[in-house]
Amino acid sequence: MLYELGTVGMVCPFPLIEAQKKMEELAAGDELKIDFDCTQATEAIPNWAAQQNYPVTNYEQLDDASWTITVQKA
Questions:
Q1: Under a CB-based contact definition with an 8 Å cutoff, are residues 72 and 30 in contact?
Q2: 73 three-state secondary structure
Q3: Mean pLDDT of the chain
Q4: 56 pairs with which residues across the strands?
């Protein structure tokens, strides 16, 4: 199942903190799509996913200052 987490407008590190909280609620195989506009999260979220062995199934820049990343719970 795909869940969405909108963190646009949140200052770092809150997009990452919210993503960590939400991932704890998900079952293995579920995906979390995180929309964010904090530039620090462009490194923090993928690094966190790698540390947790969560595959990144999508990662793209939507415009000058917003991104989306989809992380799968292992």
A1: yes
A2: coil
A3: 97
A4: 71
